[in-house]
Structures are given as structure tokens and as C-alpha cells.
Amino acid sequence: MWKFIVRRLSLAVVIIFFGAFIIYGVMRCMPTSFVESLARQRAAASATTGGPTYQEWLTQLNEAYHMNDDVVTGYLNWLGGVARGDFGNSWKYGIPVTEKFNQVIWYSVVLSIITLVLEVVICIPLGIQAARHQYSGFDYGITVFAMLCISLPTFFLATVLKYIFAVKLAWLDLYGIVGRYHEQLSQFGKILDMAQHMILPVLTLAMLSVGGLTRYTRTNMLEVMNADYIRTARAKGLSERVVINRHAFRNTLIPLVSYMSYLLPSLFSGAMITETLFQIPGIGYISYDAMVQGDLPFTMFYSVFLLVLTQLSLMLADIMYAVVDPRVRVN
Q1: 89 strand-pairing partners
Q2: Rounded to an integer, what distance in angstroms lies between the CA atom of residue 134 and that of residue 222?
Q3: Which residue of 25, 98, 142, 153 could cross-link 130, Cys pair, CB 3.0 to 4.6 Å?
Q4: Longest dimension (CA), the chain
Q5: Nearest to 317 by CA among 249, 230, 275, 259
């Protein structure tokens, strides 16, 4: 096991190194950049006073932001700063990228954790029950519900929920993470205010997520329940509850571990469309805005962070296989 972990860590370092280089190259090859946009703004502001032209500003800013270096040299310089623990300052927000990241990441983490808990609590029992009552009315109903959740676009579902609960019923606010009088509330009132604003985004993300996991659980449960050892367990006189929970579901966990291994990066990647529609300043919305604006330091930090999380989650999934199923051993 230790040899496997060392080998996977070594491979992960190589993947992260080249993955970060590809992201850096793509950002440098974008048609427009933050430096060009800033040069145009400063040239327009100084045009009336006879200040530097756009090209002069562009030359100065390229020198200041080290954009004159080629892609390989620029990437190695960035990598050298990372090795010293310096990820640089965000060009768009004007503060260290780690500080900006820490300001916005927790909105997305809380939103994702609540959604994940709801997803697991709802999907796994529904998938198991649908498999136990295959081809029944309940099974067909769950299948239709799951397919609807998979098919609905995010913007459509969010718009429908906002129209029903915010416009027609006026129970919840349309957007934002806090209300107008948030600062005047007590500490407990502030928590309740933020929780109320989280209801619609969580409901949107949960409905979009339950379909896939429900179908996945149902499919794997059906495969397991048709196995010979399940028929043997029933023939021994074991109760249906013991057969399902102790024998069938334990083996269903093996593919579910693989499916859920990708949930760790998703906790920190943010839900870009949902956060934008509800104007939640989470990492998904902020990182997208930074990428569009050409904020190279923030984009690199965020992308490498997700690369590291993805590699760790995949390695964790392999280790969990051996925990879930003792027959699985990594050699």
C-alpha cells in the first residue's frame, strides 16, 4: 500500500506540473488580456491631458507584469514563486490571491456541503427502493423524476424556483447572500438571514444533482441483487432488510465510491452558473470573473488547487476500495 501511495503521489506531481503549464499557456494565448484592458483604460483616461498612448502604456504594463517573457520562462518564474510560497497578487482585485480565495471559498463550501448531504440522504435511499421495487409504479416515478432532474438546465430551474418562491409567494429573496438589514440583526439573526438566502441555491443544486446519483445507485443495486450470493442469502432465511443492508448495499458501495470520489473537488470548485444567477460571491463566480478578465495569478492558483484536490480524491478513492471491499488489495 505504501509503495502504491508513493507511486501515485509521484504521478500526481507530474500531472499537476504539466497541467498547470497547459493552463498557463492557455491563459497567455487568450485574445485579450488584463494588461491590454488596463492599458486601454489608462490611455483613455490620459488622452485629454496628453499623457502616454495606448502602446506606451502597454509597453510599461507588460514590463511591470512580466508579460514580455515567453510562455516557458513565465511559467518557470511563476513556479519559482510558488516554491517560495508566493502565489502573487490578484491583478483584478489588487490583493494576494490566497487572501481573496479565503474570502470567497467558504460560501461555496457551505453551499456544496449542504447540497452533498441532501444528495446522499435523498438519492441512495431512493435508488435502493427503486431497485427493490423494479418496474413498479414507484420505480417508474423515481425514474421520471431522476430524468427530469438530469435534463433541466440550471438557468431554467433557478428561474422557475425564483418565480415561484420569490416573486409569486414572496417567501424568499431573489438573490444575494444577505438581506438589506443584515447588519442590524443579532448574530443568530445574521445566521438565519444567510441560511434563508441559501435555500433557493441549495434547492437548485440539489435538484440538479439527485438525478444522476439516484440512477447510478439504482443501476448498481439491480446488478448486485441479481447476483448468486444474494439468492443464497435469501435461501438461508435472512430477512430482506439484512440481505439489502448488509450484503447488497455493501457491494453497491464499491462503484459509489468511484462516483463520489469526484465530489471533493466539486466542493471547492463552486457552482458558477448557480452562484451567478443568485449573485452569491462564491469561488465559482469569482474565479470565472477572474478568468474572463485575464487575472493570471488568481486563475493559476485556483486551477492548481483543483488539480491537487482531484489527484488526492482519486488516490483516496483507490484506498477506500480496500476499506469497502476486503477482497480488493492494491499491489
Answers
A1: 96
A2: 8
A3: 142
A4: 93
A5: 259
Burial class (CB in 10 A: 0-12, 13-18, 19+), 191: exposed
Measuring CA to CA, how many Å separate 205 from each of 25, 75, 209? 32, 36, 6
What does the pLDDT look like over 242-264, one tens digit per residue? 888 777 877 777 667 666 666 66
**3-state secondary structure at position 33:** coil
DSSP letters, 107-170, are: HHHHHHHHHHHHHHHHHHHHHHHHHHTTTSHHHHHHHHHHHHHHHS-HHHHHHHHHIIIIIIS-
Report the amino acid identity of residue 130.
A
Residues 142, 145: Cα–Cα separation, whole Å: 5
* DSSP string for 72-114: HHHHHHHHHHHHTT---B-TTTSSBHHHHHHHHHHHHHHHHHH
Rg (CA), the chain: 25
CA 6 to chain centroid: 27
Residue 275 burial (10 A CB sphere; 0-12, 13-18, 19+): buried
This prediction's pTM: 0.78
Give, as one character, the DSSP assignment of residue 293.
Answer: T
Burial class of residue 286, CB neighbours in 10 A (0-12, 13-18, 19+): buried
CATH superfamily of this structure's domain 102-296+317-324: MetI-like (1.10.3720.10)
Do 204 and 280 contact (CB within 8 A), yes or no?
A: no
Q: Comparing C-alpha atoms, which of 114, 116, 127, 102 is closest to residue 264?
A: 116
What residue type is assigned to position 292 of the chain? Answer: V
Written as one letter, the residue type at 176 is: G
Predicted confidence (pLDDT) per residue in 148-204, tens digit: 888 888 889 889 999 999 889 888 888 888 888 778 888 888 888 888 888 999 999
Q: Tell me 245's DSSP state.
A: I
